[in-house]
Specification:
The radius of gyration is 26 Å and the shape is globular. It folds into 4 domains: 88 residues, Histidine-containing Protein, Chain: A (2-Layer Sandwich), CATH 3.30.1340.30; 75 residues, SH3 type barrels (Roll); 68 residues, SH3 Domains (SH3 type barrels), CATH 2.30.30.40; 139 residues, Alpha-Beta Complex (endopeptidase fold (from Nostoc punctiforme)), CATH 3.90.1720. The longest helix has 37 residues. The strands form 8 sheets. The chain has a 6-stranded antiparallel beta sheet. The chain has a 5-stranded antiparallel beta sheet with strand order 9-8-7-4-10. The chain has 7 helices and 27 strands. α1 runs antiparallel to α2 and α5 crosses α6.
């Protein structure tokens, strides 16, 4: 009789364990499903949610910057009558207070994959770039850029701002540095010391105009002088009609500049960074990586070179689903791209300039100019952060 009771208890425990295991698998499937729907690209969305079991209850932990995704997850669990404890943090963290914005204050701020100077460089933010701050950890800001890219920036390179301060900044008179490179100095007189280097696309406020110089203020409050002829008024910059020839001219000005993984400034660039820099000169914001850039714009038949027009983006990889490189089409089969350095090559196998780019072939092409202010290709003028 005792043996029978033991067997019954054992079977009951197995049944409970089986039910629990089935429930946990369901929770895991729901988290995966919501993540795939709301955060299909981990480079542009955070949905880092895990769970444990505690006293026969699911405990949800992690972070996300997607409140709607969290709500769908919780509603799904409730609908299935799965008990849970919600310990998921929605970013930005409440402990940050009102300063949930930042403006890049160095000529080029490095964006890293993790909060560590030894971590991989994944992108960069130019001076004057508005950023959303998701959290601050040990002096590092977890940020999101205007093209939605997520990474970490050393807090010393940023000026943290409130909503009100950002509104004021947007209404102040700003200028864009309109040369490949240059300097801001401490006086408008002949003998001057450097305050900061500058790169194409840097934005700063103007205090006053003194003859040939602008008296400017950086986002962190530092002041300096820069030659007026080297700058373009912000309102004039965003009002201009984006021009393919002008974008290509900027790309050509970078010929010979070194390739740098993660580089998106005229100092040094990776392949998609060169394309972003060229189009940003025309006040157009493209997605960060080549594989992302390939998703947006008007697709062009690349099998016949006669279908291509100057400025078209050419994508290279093992297939259209595995893109690893991008360049900008020039003419007569030539394109400009960053590979080792910014250079010109050809898609024509008979041309001496032909190379099997990145050991991969041409797998796609898109046209930017007809797609401005569609998903993934946004003008600065129409971007609410600016």
């Amino acid at each position: 009789m005792l043996k029978i009771k033991i067997i019954i208890v054992f079977l009951a425990l197995c049944s409970i364990a089986f039910a629990d295991n089935k429930e946990l698998k369901t929770v895991n499937r729901i988290i995966d499903s919501v993540g795939r729907k709301y955060a299909p690209d981990k480079r542009t969305a955070l949905f880092n949610i895990v769970f444990t079991e505690n006293s026969r209850e699911v405990v949800l932990k992690g972070t996300t910057n997607l409140p709607d995704a969290k709500s769908v997850l919780l509603d799904s669990l409730s609908l299935l009558k799965i008990s849970y404890t919600d310990s998921v943090i929605v970013l930005p963290e409440k402990s940050m207070g009102e300063k949930t914005w930042a403006i890049a204050t160095l000529s080029v701020d490095n964006i890293r994959a993790a909060p560590d100077h030894a971590s991989e460089l994944v992108s960069q933010a130019l001076m004057g770039t508005p950023l959303k701050v998701l959290e601050i950890v040990d002096g590092w800001c977890h940020i999101q850029t205007p093209d939605q890219y997520i990474g970490w920036i050393d807090e010393k390179g940023l000026a943290l701002k409130t909503d009100a301060e950002m509104t004021l900044w947007r209404h102040n008179k700003r200028f864009m540095f309109n040369h490949i490179s240059g300097y801001a100095v401490n006086t408008s007189k002949r003998k001057a010391n450097h305050v900061s280097d500058l790169v194409l696309g840097d934005l700063f406020e103007t205090i006053s105009v003194k003859k040939k110089y602008l008296h400017i203020k950086f986002p962190d409050g530092r002041t300096a002088y820069v030659k007026k002829d080297d700058c373009l008024a912000y309102d004039e910059w965003i009002a201009q009609q984006p021009d393919v020839a002008a974008a290509l001219s900027v790309a050509k000005l970078m010929l010979g500049h070194p390739y740098m993984w993660g580089g998106t400034s005229s100092k040094a660039v990776d392949c998609s960074g060169m394309v972003k820099t060229a189009w940003f000169s025309q006040a157009v914001i493209l997605s960060r990586d080549a594989s992302q850039q390939a998703r947006y714009g008007v697709k062009v038949d690349f099998n016949n070179v006669e279908n291509l027009k100057p400025g078209d983006l050419l994508f290279f990889g093992s297939s259209a689903q595995h893109i690893v490189h991008v360049g900008m089409y020039l003419e007569k089969g030539l394109y400009i791209h960053a590979s080792g350095l910014v250079r010109i090559n050809s898609v024509n196998p008979k041309d001496p300039l032909y190379v099997l780019t990145e050991r991969k072939g041409l797998v796609g092409a898109i046209r930017i100019i007809n797609s401005i202010n569609t998903e993934g290709i946004v003008s600065v003028k129409n971007h609410s952060w600016y």
